[in-house]
């Protein structure tokens, strides 16, 4: 048995929490607000509910908890990493691994014991207590000593952990997958039904082509791979959204800096022109900015109303 701290109970974190709850390990769960239950809904209309006690990173118990954990999993948006690591690392043992179960690239360099992963878990957070799980429950990790520890703790029928000698290839493949489908659903504010339009396919072909021009993995640069991505997108449920689509819909900050932004910075370092990625980045950042202004305005309005009372 092990003590596992899981930070983030959204679409990804909830599936990891389900696996921990079904195991013999002790889970310590952290969310934005405390909760006593976790509900997972499935497309076949089945529901599961788990009784849990969750904390926030402001709780006084965090020093005791993080002093004793064998593994930390961060399943929040990558935009929260700096704040989370600043809060928890003073209490961690120096050899405690941190698994980042997040989309994108470039977010794991901040901690020596960090383990990146390629996440294949699709879902949507419905509210503070429930998520809907669409498909997949797999994490791909580089084959390292820390990854082996994580594999031994987490691999099960409920959560497949794959250790790969070709992790870099898997990581670049996933960021190319995310580049196309996240960009088009975020820009058009449409679910995956949009990819069945020929106009969308033409646009996706060009932005993926640019991503391939940046990618250092030769086997991911082929026309066949680009066609495979289009077919993959068209295999998704038409009602399924992406993380960026749901973030913008719910006025939350997106992970654009770790997907489109990462590719854009990488392309500029190699002096590669990527106008489609640039436009996708700029449009999503613009919507991000507007949403953050709306959230700030709402917070100010709430504060003003409390002062009036």
From TrEMBL:
Pfam families: ApbA (PF02558), ApbA_C (PF08546). One of its GO terms (molecular function) is 2-dehydropantoate 2-reductase activity. It comes from Abyssicoccus albus. GO terms for cellular component: cytoplasm. Keywords: NADP, Oxidoreductase, Pantothenate biosynthesis. Pathway: Cofactor biosynthesis; (R)-pantothenate biosynthesis; (R)-pantoate from 3-methyl-2-oxobutanoate: step 2/2. It comes from the Bacteria. This is 2-dehydropantoate 2-reductase. Signal peptide: none annotated.
